[in-house]
Write the structure tokens for this entry.
Amino acid sequence: MRPPRPLPEQLRSAPFVVALALDAGVSRRRLRHDALARPFHGVRSATAVDTVESRAVAYAAAMAGDHVFSHATAALLHGMPLPLAVEREVRVHVTALAQGRAPRGRGVIGHSTRAEPVVTAVRGLAVLGPADTWCSLAGMLSLDDLVAAGDRLVGLPVPLSSFELIDEAIVRHGRRPGRARLRLARAQLRANSYSRRESLARLSLVRAGLPEPELVAILHLRSGRSTKGDLVFRRHRVLVEYDGDQHRTDDRQWATDVSRLNDLVADGWIVIRMTKRMSRAELVARVIRALEDRGWRP
């Protein structure tokens, strides 16, 4: 098969609208070639459109000026953690501002709002601000998933928002779907969480009737080492640590972890290591047993 005729240089590196290509002299036959991705109506791309950001960039090529990315699309662009099933959604969420007509079409989930949310730019894309994005998730996430996403707003490594801005966004959200869940989640947000896994673990432990742990708390050890613990029950010297894959695959990280854990044990800490395969029920049972060994009683 004869290779397609090269596109004009300005159309090769980013998605483009069909009308622009026609104006540049590209034939309709060329625009129908299988070498071009067709992620949305009237949009073509010479590069792959297979990530949240690339899909948003492709849609933005033809997006109306009063439309912004919202809901799960905005959350992922901001770096909020979401359930895997939501992350894998290939359609983009777009909201029309000023109660405009919600966008429709293949590959897009349209919304409309009469509120006046904060709008920001993420790598050149018009996106709801972090707090308003979180509020927009209330109608599509469970309570725990909403808390985990919200913890990222005030969490580490750098907060995306503040409790004050979150409260203002909740007022703007008004009586839209998910408002009751949103307020329940707001009461359970905590600063300093480092990951979705830690947030979900904290919720499970507290709901089991255990004391609420400190998050990413500094521990001073007799060895002279100062370290941070993921979920810390300081009074009972019990620590829950999340071990990600980097702890297993990085030899230097592994050696550091061993030395650190030896120092913690020498100081009398019970360390419970949590992995992504550990169920919440197992984690709760292990923490209860450790706390009871240290004298805790419900």
About this structure: Residues 196-293 form a domain with the Endonuclease; Chain A fold (CATH 3.40.960).
